[in-house]
Design brief:
Alpha-Beta Plaits; ACT_dom; Acetalactate_synth_ssu; about 30% helix; elongated; AHAS_small-like_ACT
């Protein structure tokens, strides 16, 4: 089962490598990983997506909590949450295909960020399934390059991953 683990971590050199090293040493796969500073410059928020049984995820969270850099973590997939991923795709856009690409981007609420004589760069945000559906609709023959940010997420409602709330 897919899990989204959000971690508040010390914003220090080597913190990311210690988390990644934990996964590597135990043979767990990180499907996506995003990290950025929070409103507190001493902390970063790391969001990683991994898969495993309940027992494996419990073992992962226990091991992560033992790392000195980890301040707090939560598996947000256990609670109502919002998740998003950013996709940038460069696609062939020539002649009549240009209008079709623009319509497709509009349908998926994408934005065309760059236009050249033969290409469009399209930006899309949303859940993984939406981005996958857009790429399927686009078709491999049109795709020149794809860049994805990886999943990030936030809890809905009053619950939050912060130092002040349990």
């Amino acid at each position: 089962m897919r899990h989204i683990i959000s971690i508040l971590i010390e914003n220090e050199a080597g913190a990311l490598s210690r988390v990644a090293g934990l996964f590597s040493a135990r043979g767990y796969n990180i499907e996506t990983l995003t990290v950025a500073a929070t409103q507190d410059p001493t902390l970063s928020r790391m969001t990683l997506v991994t898969s495993g049984s309940t027992e494996i995820i419990e073992q992962i969270t226990k091991q992560l909590n033992k790392l000195i850099d980890v301040v707090k973590l939560i598996d947000i997939s256990e609670f109502p949450h919002i998740e998003r991923e950013l996709l940038l795709v460069k696609a062939h856009a020539v002649e009549s295909g240009r209008d079709e690409l623009k319509r497709l981007a509009d349908i998926f609420r994408g934005r065309i960020l760059d236009v050249t004589a033969g290409t469009y760069v399209i930006e899309l945000t949303g859940e993984k399934s939406k981005l996958d559906a857009f790429l399927d609709a686009l078709g491999e023959e049109r795709i020149i390059e794809v860049v994805r940010s990886g999943t990030t997420g936030i809890l809905r409602g009053e619950k939050a991953l912060s130092l002040s709330v349990a």
